[in-house]
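pinging the channel bc i need a second pair of eyes. not urgent but kinda urgent?? the chain im working w is below, pasted from the shared doc
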Amino acid sequence: MSQNLINRTVVAVDIGYGNTKMVCGHDLDKAGRAQWKEIVFPSIAPEVVVDEEASGFSNPDRIMISHNGRRYYTGPKATSGVVSRVIEPDYIETDLHELMLLTALHLAMRESKRVIRVIDKLVLGLPVSGHNSQRIRLKELGMQTRRVPLPKSLIHPGGPKEVEVHVRDCLILPQPYGAMRLAAQGLPVQDVIFQDGKLAMVVDPGYRTLDWFVSEAMTPDMKLSGSYDGGVSSILREVSQKIGFDHGTGSLEFDMVERGLQTGSINLGHKIIDMRDYIAMVPAIAGQEIGVFVTRLGGRRQNIARVFIAGGGAAYYEQAMRDRLPGCEITQLDRPILSNARGYWLAGCDALSD
């Protein structure tokens, strides 16, 4: 580690519509394998109805956060049930976005096993299409001082249960840049992603948006990059509507549909729905979305040498990418749901090392 980074704190948070991802450290184990300090949790915050803490039921993965006079449960086990998701157009201004950031900072302390009072570099991201218009406002929000509840393991008898967290600087990145930065880590300097005249691309299907990010020699080409409403939610919407039509159930909650696509069935209690026919729908839906931005690339797509797939919806879109971009070297990144957050963290370290 660079001497500039010793005793410096970098926290990266990728606040998505489906899940929030936090990375606060990186080490190597004895075998030289990467060991990330990270966590993924759903971007939901049901309001507290029963105070389980007061009832003696405690779960470190269910975190109670107070915000604007109300209390919410957040974290990996925010709820064991299904929570309806409302997609807000101005997400960064919502209470939910703030609750996800507070939760991420709480979990950064838990994963680091230390109280964090000062963050030297907080790294956040935006969809490609919203980066230019919202980055200044998101930086203002990121720089705010916050009172964050401490993990129980860091609360001493008679000590405070919250801590003020100050941010010295906040870096705002286009979301897929994180995955590109991660993909570059460890590659030889001869790799095509570092060469002039060759394009590399990250395709990042998230919950509400499908983003693509193009760079030449690691320099962003924002004219070729973009995003549009789509991603995993559009696949789940079509599958949900088809199930409702076939079985008379009405449209099912997206979380239930996604679980069904992963497990192969949906148990409604009074009936079990076999998901095989609906799983077979996914490649065609994904292919339509991939076709939209491949068309926008026009003739420049002939210069694309490497494609990296990131994001929570990577598995749904990989085959469509291979079908639409024959001849490209296509790589799905390890744990693609965390790719952007890991790359954010590396980019934050880069900034502190300069």
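so The chain has a mean pLDDT of 89. and The two ends are 13 Å apart (CA to CA). — does that match what u expected or am i reading it wrong
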